[in-house]
Amino acid sequence: MRRPLFIAALCAAAVACSAGEVVQSTTTAPPTTTTTPATTTTTTVPTTTTLLTAESLPEGSSLILESQGEADVFSSPGDAEPIRVLEAETILDTPTVVTVLEGPVDGWARVMLPGRPNGSEGWVESDRFTEYVVEGSVVVDLSDRTLAYYESGEEVLSTTVAIGTEGNPTPIGFFFVTDNVTLANPASVWGPHALGLSARSDTITEFNGGDGIVGIHGTNRPESIGEAASLGCVRVPNEVIVRLHELVEMGTPVEIRA
User: Which of 14, 188, 224, 241 is most buried, judging by how many CB atoms fall within 10 Å of its CB?
Assistant: First the structure.
């Protein structure tokens, strides 16, 4: 609590009296006091702004940029002409997101891009996006035919999956979640929910209006779980896709291993 400052003024008077003598009254003026104002020293504490960058995050966390409209992608920061334009939304009507690989620094971020070729990268102007952090990640092991979901490095769930056939294999690499949708018919071939990925099929260039998008989804063929049975997508049991739908944010990294 800040205390108020009280200032007291001190006044003094002296009167001399002597019996039988002329009484003379003498008023003594208060001594002259010179008050030197206190010197006020103002200390300016520098404001420190912590920039949120991919490099500043702890292991297991990822920085995601969500588009606020169409956004140009450049080969290098400051280039005059873009190499690509990101639409504001995906074909499933969800906001376009990208995963940050470097930065943002000086208004530029190096990002992983959805679409062909798989593993594409580019530079975007970060002020055209909003940013957020995800703590989760997905790992698909094609040899074991398993999927595991992690949060902050801790396994939350794991399951056996169905993967692509030899003729339409599930692509290998590092990707991210671009969509998290609910299907109108939960008994469909995709189950009740689906996660769209930035990955594209190596063999299918068009499917249901999309560019051979690879996803993680449920199934109406539970007997196919554990088999190489899909066109490249990763099938999980319906009870698992329900859980993943609740847990997984758009932009979540997905590693598909051989």
Answer: 241
